[in-house]
Amino acid sequence: MMSSKINTQQKILDAAQNLFAESGFNDTSLRQITTKAEVNLASVNYHFGSKKELIQAVLQRYLQILMPRLDQEFDLLLARTKPNNLPDVLAVFVKPLLELNQVQRKGTRTFLQLLGRGYTDVQGHLRWFINHHYGRTLDKLVLLVQQSCPHLPQSELFWRLHFSLGSIVFTMASNEALAEIALADFDEAVDIEGVICRLIPYLSAGIAAPVFNQVTQITTPPNMNEGAAKRQINASLSV
Amino acid sequence: MMSSKINTQQKILDAAQNLFAESGFNDTSLRQITTKAEVNLASVNYHFGSKKELIQAVLQRYLQILMPRLDQEFDLLLARTKPNNLPDVLAVFVKPLLELNQVQRKGTRTFLQLLGRGYTDVQGHLRWFINHHYGRTLDKLVLLVQQSCPHLPQSELFWRLHFSLGSIVFTMASNEALAEIALADFDEAVDIEGVICRLIPYLSAGIAAPVFNQVTQITTPPNMNEGAAKRQINASLSV
DNA sequence: CAGTGATTCAAACGTACATTTCAAACAGGT
DNA sequence: ACCTGTTTGAAATGTACGTTTGAATCACTG
Fold this sequence. Notes:
InterPro entries (chains A, B): DNA-bd_HTH_TetR-type_CS (IPR023772), Homeodomain-like_sf (IPR009057), HTH-type_TetR-like_transc_reg (IPR050109), HTH_TetR (IPR001647), PsrA_TetR_C (IPR041586), Tet_transcr_reg_TetR-rel_C_sf (IPR036271)
Protein name (chains A, B): TetR family transcriptional regulator
Keywords (chains A, B): DNA-binding
Oligomer: homodimer
Order of helices and strands of chain A: HHHHHHHHHHHH
Number of domains of chain A: 1
Number of helices of chain A: 12
Pfam family, one (chains A, B): TetR_N
CATH architecture of chain A: Orthogonal Bundle
Shape of chain A: globular
CATH class of chain A: Mainly Alpha
Radius of gyration of chain A: 20 Å
Helix content of chain A: over 70%
CATH superfamily of chain A: Tetracycline Repressor, domain 2
CATH topology of chain A: Tetracycline Repressor, domain 2
Organism (chains A, B): Alishewanella tabrizica
Number of strands of chain A: 0
Structural class of chain A: mainly alpha
């Protein structure tokens, strides 16, 4: 039935992932993708059904490798008797992320850019898609961060995790431009690994920062309902 | 010649700013804008020339108020003999930003959302527009941060300022959704002021975090050229 | 109140998009 | 070699967009 022509799907996925990473999902047309992939325009709808599903397939190629790896790293940390400190928790991302380079050339950079696009472009279906498939893993991450920052109220943690997500996503979306500037002005060749390593101390310090009681803040007494809190932190963490 | 019908431009600007803030520039059509503003479709091109120029006009309404205020705050800090600490530098944003609420209801939130959209949507002309008009003011900010963090190499500062920009921009772009979650799960009504106040300790700690010498990092010796560095940090800071 | 320039309006233009259609080309099994 | 189901190809469909057009309407001046 099928054999030698499997690669049409691959050609589409490869072309799509690079164009998506460069220009975002909304600003990349199926015509650009099929032209670059040297396949017929109708192939995308034939093989993937729709543009939406193509976007999900492109991300899924990386997620199905990354997420199980992260999951097992999280389990290792959770199994420890002593609580982990925050930099160690964040550091577990490094290896699984860099292993994506073995999946595909520049895989790590591409995946992170795609993740950034998933947030900044309006792609509600991606949010749902990721959380539906990998919500359990994300739960473990939130738990680990909570354990490593026991002094932080849940609400503060919620905001800081999103601040962090913003740093990551924004940096990765504009990653190439930033790397070029860094190279030109500081003679520093910063690859994706370098950026990740620079992010960790920044994020660790930010997340664990002392809570500052602001003058103007009129906060309702923290009256939160426990279970929903964690679920929602993680739900909104996914794309 | 003109008198009572000035408000067509205002109606367009008001409708456009809210739709832009909600859905981004690319995903808001002139038809949506003119429908909401209850004006004719052709009015936008008649009064503003093009969609691009409308986008700039929407942002300009806030920038021309905010930036001079920031500029004078920066000058005050720069005039001090003792170096300022980082939280104080970042804190000067609070008042000028909140004053935008007097310009328009929910002005602060709207402006920050628009700024976020300016980054996440691909709007190269906005980058140029802001830097062209307000580059001098941004220079002063970079200088202040440098002074308050003398232990940081320029390249590290460069990256951390962008990490911070990502936090701000991303948080503001998804501000409403986050605020809703916070309200539902933590019984915390977090307005835009609350978010800004939460951001400051996070950003301060992140930017000023100790530099961590990563194992894997193979960095070329810091060989930077002084003037270009500052210029580029700020150039890439603008939208 | 006639005339003039600024504004509004409905309609159309040209372009780009995702998706559909259906015939042609292709494969593997018998 | 022939059928059968899978994949490709070129073309068309329908929708939405930003922009342009030219006549109609308005507001003001002389």
